[in-house]
Amino acid sequence: PATATAKSDVTATFENVTWRAGAEFDVNPDVMLYATASTGFLSGVMNQNGTVTQPQKSRSYELGVKSRFWDRKAELNISLYDVRYSDLATTFQIPNPANAGSFITLSSNGGVLKARGAEVSLALLPVESWKISIGASYLDAKYGRFGINLPGGFQVINGAVPASRFIDLRGERPPYTPEFTFSIATGYDFDIGVGTLTPQVQFRYSDSY
Fold this sequence. Notes:
Layout: E1 20-28, E2 31-42, E3 56-69, E4 74-95, E5 103-127, E6 130-149, E7 166-168, E8 180-188, E9 190-191, E10 196-197, E11 200-206
Antiparallel strand pairs: 1-2, 2-3, 3-4, 4-5, 5-6, 6-7, 6-8, 8-11, 9-10
C-alpha cells in the first residue's frame, strides 16, 4: 500500500447571496418587452495539495421582446445580453513531489470573461402542418485580465517557454465561442392513418472557433 508522506487539514466555507430581478411590459396581447438582471455564484474547489480556489461569480443583464403576428402564425423573439464572469477558475500542472516525472493538475482563479451578444428566433406556420424555424446569434466574448502563474520550466505556449510566468489572455476569444451562428429547419406533418410522419430538413452554420 502507498504510504502518506504528509498530512494537512484544510477547511473552506463559501457563502453568497445571489439575486434576480425582472420586469415586463405588454405592448399589446401579442407583443411583450422584458428586462432582467441577475447574479450567479459557483463555490470554490479544493485541490490535491490542499490549496483552495475562490468562488466564481457572474453578473448578467438581458433585454428582449417576444411577439406574435400574421394571425399568430409567426413568432419572433429577440434578446440582447451582457454577461461578466469574475474569478474564473483555470487549471495548470505542477511536478508531483511524491512521484518524480509525473504532474498533478491544480485549479486557480484566473480572472475575468466578458460576453455580450444577441439572439433572434423566428417560427413560422404557413399552413397547419408545415413548420419553419429560423435562428441566428451573435456573440462577442473576450477575456479581460485572465491567466495563470506557470510553475515554469516545462510548460510552453505556442511551442516556446514564455518570457513571463504569468500568461495573460486579455483580449483573446475563449474556446467554443463562435462569433456568428445561423440555423434553419423545416418539417411537414403527414397523417398516415396510424400516426404522423414528419420529414424534416435542417441546416446550421457556425463561424470557426
